[in-house]
Amino acid sequence: MKKLFLSAFLLLGGAAFAQAPSGAETAEQSGTTPTLESRLDEIETKMTTWQKIVAGLPKLSGYVQAGYQYTDNSSAFFLKRVRLSLAGDIVAKKLDYKIQFEFCKPQLVDAYIQYKPLQQLNIKLGQYKVPFSIDNTEYVPTKLELIEYPLVLRKMMGFGEDLCGISATGRDLGATLFGGFLKRDGYHIINYDLGVFNGEGINTSDKNKSKDLAARLTIKPVKGLMISGSYYWGEYGASYLKRERYAFGACYDRGPVVVRGEWIGGTTGVSSAADFDSNGWYVLAGWRAPHNLMPVARFETFTENQAAASALRQTNYTVGLLWAPVKYLRCQLNYTYEDYGSAYDLSGRNVVAVMFTGVF
User: Fold this and answer.
1) Are strands 122-129 and 75-91 parallel, antiparallel or unpaired?
2) In sequence order, which residues have a C-beta less than 8 Å from that of residue 74 and are 6 or more positions away?
3) Among 59, 84, 68, 79, CA closest to 359
4) CB 352, CB 335: distance < 8 Å
5) Measured between alpha carbons, how far is 231 from 264 in angstroms, rounded to an integer?
6) How many other C-beta atoms lie within 10 A of the C-beta of residue 157?
7) What's CA 262's distance to the chain center, in Å?
8) Distances in whole angstroms, Cα of residue 346 to Cα of each of 16, 152, 313, 338
9) Which end of the chain, N or C, is less surrounded by CB atoms within 10 Å?
10) Secondary structure of residue 162 in the 3-state scheme
11) Beta partners for residue 282, in sequence order
């Protein structure tokens, strides 16, 4: 098909050469007339070379998330994320990289390389998402059905509200071995991640000699269904304070239906002699309706300190509507009722938020 197109192009352009001055020596007279086939091969070779050059260039992408939030006692416009990414292959399908920068709060978010010699054994090195939980690893902000990540994840995996005080968007500096086994229909049934990290968040050097460990096992028995277990152990700060996390969850995301839930618990050190246990869980359900509409709902609860039981518990009820009128635009409307335990000294709060995501 490509050669037929090129042949037509050359034939249409031949009239221009027919008007050449008669005094000029033609290529045919000189005995060097190239055949149509050779011309096509030459052009095709040049096009192939150019395609290889273009394919080797970094791919530029990004997105902007902005919106408005109203609560019982405040309201404000917000700029949530402004991300720009560069990604590409150094060696096709074997060695790739990604660099992502955040402009809202200027900082480097991702910077890593991946070497993938085998489907069963690969390595990632740099700064990236810690392989822990379903939402943190499988759902980037442009895929998330609601505006905010689950409360328990934000509190226990470095999302700015972390009990440790670490603000890292679920990321850290380290190295991870990962791979999959038993491939079927384009996916692996058994998948694993095993990582070693500094444990202090992004763009931050380690503050002690200890290294944090993260492990995740994912089983996909059928297409669309995922069962995931995660474990994280570490020590943060110069005082080697304990930070232990564990999670178990499941997700079905295929066709019009998405159902996802996860339980996360753990221990956080506040001094060399004291720590406390926390846990929480969430369940989310959504339906991809016609006209690119998606109604979604999530119930979530989080207990900051189990010793205080319900006194330090927060429960959120969220309903939302996601609309994607065109490929590069997402519009989200969320309503959340936040119910606080008695120890917070806060009454229930209503939160309405709208956010627009432009992807390029």
Assistant:
1) unpaired
2) none
3) 84
4) yes
5) 10
6) 30
7) 18
8) 82, 19, 11, 10
9) N
10) coil
11) 262, 300
Cα–Cα nearest to 276, from 308, 305, 235: 305
Task: Please give the chain's pLDDT, 360 residues, in tens.
Answer: 444 444 444 344 444 434 444 444 444 444 556 677 777 777 767 667 676 666 668 899 999 999 999 999 999 999 999 999 999 988 777 999 999 999 999 999 999 999 999 999 999 999 999 999 999 999 999 999 999 999 999 999 988 888 998 888 999 999 999 999 999 998 999 999 999 999 999 999 999 999 999 999 999 999 999 999 999 999 999 999 999 999 999 999 999 999 999 999 999 998 877 899 999 999 999 999 999 999 999 999 999 998 877 789 999 999 999 999 999 999 999 999 999 998 887 889 999 999 999 999
Residue tagged 């506040």 (tokens): 270
* CA 356 – CA 358 distance, rounded (Å): 7
H/E stretch holding 102 reads strand 95-102
Kind and range of the H or E element at 141? none
Q: How many CB atoms lie within 10 A of CB 192?
A: 17
The rounded radius of gyration (Å) of the Cα atoms in the chain is: 27
- The answer to whether the beta carbons of residues 152 and 268 sit under 8 Å apart is no
First to last CA, the chain: 31
- Residue bearing tokens 């394919």: 55
| Cα separation values, 62 from 55, 66, 88, 146, 179, Å | 18, 14, 14, 19, 27
Task: Pick the closest to residue 305 from 163, 208, 205 (CA basis).
Answer: 163
